[in-house]
């Protein structure tokens, strides 16, 4: 018997489509013919975008003479490639989001050292952090696993959390420090740790350390600081099960984001719901998307996510 999914009959499974709000230093200007035109801190860039089946909205002259073009190294545009950059483009430059300054730069992985679509998660976590502080007067403890360059950590710390930022890449941790310094947040309560995520979680469990909020953005594939191999399809379920005991007795949230996997948001939704089912609360899931900066602009899905919120955040 074929089963048809009807979101009206499963309201908690209905997808959320979240697009960034409040950005001034990032804009998706246009998209089409397999590309997207973006503005990052005043510089324009063109990157591959296989989802943009349609024709561009803006005239061709608006796409002319960008500061950088990422030329894909494969026909399907999923992997490889290189930047072709203007000689006048600096190696890095300052961008701002909600009065937090950090550094943007074109990376070999075709992005800019931050993911603007994730700002909806930053804002959501900040609201829960502030509500907890208002109710109890205490700083929540937050873990940013696979923390990358640390913009989410800065945002959470500014909201009032004490943050532990973990990444297995020394370069990512170094950029995290650079962003912290650039934001003039050297006194922020953030500890930066270079370690494989699974090793860190096991060590924290042994030490009995607990967190009120956890966010994680694991890669599809990666290697830890000591050569540990990570494959999301093989390892994510075990990692979530291991992370669950790290939640405090009065947890606030858990956020899981995934890029570049051939799966629906439902995969993350059911994994999160199954893992945390005995904690109660609410699981909401969907896509992070970027909308063109014009009325009725088209949206490009960037990642799938699932996030859990405790029934009470006080």
Outline the structure in words.
With 314 residues, the protein is of the alpha/beta class. It folds into 2 domains: 18-104, Golgi alpha-mannosidase II (Immunoglobulin-like, Sandwich); 115-309, Rossmann fold. It is 24% helix and 30% strand. The chain has 6 helices and 17 strands. It has helices spanning 119-136, 151-159, 170-182, 197-207, 232-243, 265-275, and strands at 16-18, 26-32, 35-40, 43-48, 68-72, 81-85, 93-97, 100-104, 141-145, 162-167, 190-194, 213-216, 221-223, 229-231, 253-258, 282-291, 299-309. Strands 1-16-17-15-12-9-10-11 form an 8-stranded mixed beta sheet, sandwiched between helices. Strands 2-3-4-5-6 form a 5-stranded mixed beta sheet, with no helix packed on it. A hairpin with a 7-residue loop joins strand 16 and strand 17. It starts with 15 loop residues before the first strand and ends in a 5-residue tail after the last strand. 38% of the residues are buried. The model is unreliable at 1-11 (pLDDT under 50).
């Amino acid at each position: 018997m074929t089963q048809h999914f009807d979101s009206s009959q499963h309201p908690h499974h209905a997808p959320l489509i979240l697009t960034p709000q409040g950005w001034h230093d990032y804009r998706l200007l246009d998209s089409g013919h397999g590309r997207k035109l973006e503005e990052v801190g005043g510089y324009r860039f063109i990157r591959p975008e296989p989802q943009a089946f349609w024709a561009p909205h803006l005239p061709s002259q608006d796409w002319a003479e960008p500061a950088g073009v990422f030329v894909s190294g494969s026909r399907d545009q999923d992997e490889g490639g290189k930047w072709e950059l203007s000689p006048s483009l600096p190696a890095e430059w300052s961008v701002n989001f909600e009065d937090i300054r950090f550094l943007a730069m074109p990376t070999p992985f075709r992005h800019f050292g931050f993911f603007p679509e994730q700002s909806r998660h930053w804002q959501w976590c900040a609201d829960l952090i502030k509500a907890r502080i208002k109710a109890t007067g205490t700083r929540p403890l937050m873990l940013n696993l696979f923390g990358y360059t640390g913009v989410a950590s800065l945002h959470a710390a500014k909201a009032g959390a004490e943050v532990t930022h973990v990444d297995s890449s020394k370069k990512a941790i170094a950029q995290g420090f650079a962003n912290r310094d650039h934001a003039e947040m050297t006194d922020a309560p953030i500890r930066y740790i270079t370690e494989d995520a699974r090793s860190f979680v096991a060590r924290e469990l042994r030490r009995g350390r607990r967190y009120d909020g956890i966010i994680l953005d694991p890669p599809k594939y990666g290697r830890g600081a000591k050569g540990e191999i990570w494959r999301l399809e093989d390892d994510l379920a075990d990692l979530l099960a291991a992370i669950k005991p790290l939640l405090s007795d009065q947890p606030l949230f858990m956020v899981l984001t995934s890029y570049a996997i051939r799966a629906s948001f439902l995969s993350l939704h059911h994994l999160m719901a199954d893992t945390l089912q005995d904690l109660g609360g609410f699981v909401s899931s969907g896509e992070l998307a970027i909308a063109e900066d014009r009325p009725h602009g088209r949206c490009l899905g960037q990642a799938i996510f699932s996030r859990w919120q405790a029934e009470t955040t006080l």
